[in-house]
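Section 5: illustrative case.
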């Protein structure tokens, strides 16, 4: 049950956005400009400014009861991004606060979104400070949890944090894939998941009205159904956590994007 507060709050809203890919990273362009010739401070600031940002806000429900909120921001520089997530929830009187900052990039070798590193902090229930770095095209990870260091390996599928996993999921969905496998790097294990794309549904969802939704069922360590809306730039509208005792729901209530 309590994985809902630590993972799903982050994990589920890890599920949102892979955006339009830009051709070149602005940061790389800025480095070339600096080495080639002097540039004004104003030009440098412009080159290093975010290409675009996406902001998503969600309500969190447990068995129909509103228990918290989550916000998620993607800041994009070409084919790299920083994703920050923050959630607060109170479950059965136990408060949990979750923060994560993940850095990811597009691999020109394996043609997928990969986690470079992430830092996760959880206070309250299951409090921890987790830092992880990834190498070998995401197949190797080094995880530091409160000073305890472990190494993980995957032979075929990249290990990802929850935010990059969500972005890669959306990427595969946009490619028309009907099923696929992904692996999440958890604090003390790696968790493999299978995903199955279901037939489209139509739902009326405030404040957007009637939307066509694409359900994606996740099986594995956690059973979750994600609902993406093509009319809303394939954003994650809802995610339902199918627990044995309690049912969880995360629902989008606000979305803003400067990405095209």
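Designed sequence:
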């Amino acid at each position: 049950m309590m994985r809902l507060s630590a993972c799903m709050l982050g994990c589920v809203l890890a599920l949102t956005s892979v955006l339009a890919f830009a051709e070149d990273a602005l940061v790389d362009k800025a480095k070339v400009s600096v080495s080639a010739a002097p540039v004004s401070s104003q030009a440098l600031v412009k080159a290093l400014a975010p290409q675009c940002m996406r902001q998503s806000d969600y309500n969190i429900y447990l068995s129909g009861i509103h228990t918290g909120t989550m916000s998620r921001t993607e800041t994009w520089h070409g084919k790299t991004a920083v994703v920050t997530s923050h959630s607060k929830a109170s479950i059965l009187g136990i408060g949990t606060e979750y923060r994560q900052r993940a850095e990811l990039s597009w691999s020109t070798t394996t043609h997928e979104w990969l986690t470079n590193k992430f830092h996760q902090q959880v206070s309250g229930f299951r409090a921890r400070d987790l830092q992880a770095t990834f190498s070998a095209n995401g197949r190797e990870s080094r995880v530091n949890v409160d000073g305890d260091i472990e190494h993980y390996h995957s032979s075929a599928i990249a290990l990802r944090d929850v935010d990059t996993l969500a972005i890669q999921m959306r990427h595969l969905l946009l490619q028309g894939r009907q099923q696929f496998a992904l692996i999440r790097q958890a604090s003390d294990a790696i968790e493999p998941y299978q995903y199955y794309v279901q037939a489209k549904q139509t739902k009326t969802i405030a404040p957007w009205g009637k939307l066509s939704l694409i359900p994606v069922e996740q099986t594995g360590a956690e059973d979750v159904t994600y609902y993406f809306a093509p009319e809303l730039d394939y954003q994650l509208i809802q995610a339902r956590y199918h627990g044995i005792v309690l049912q969880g729901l995360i629902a989008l209530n606000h979305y803003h994007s400067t990405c095209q």
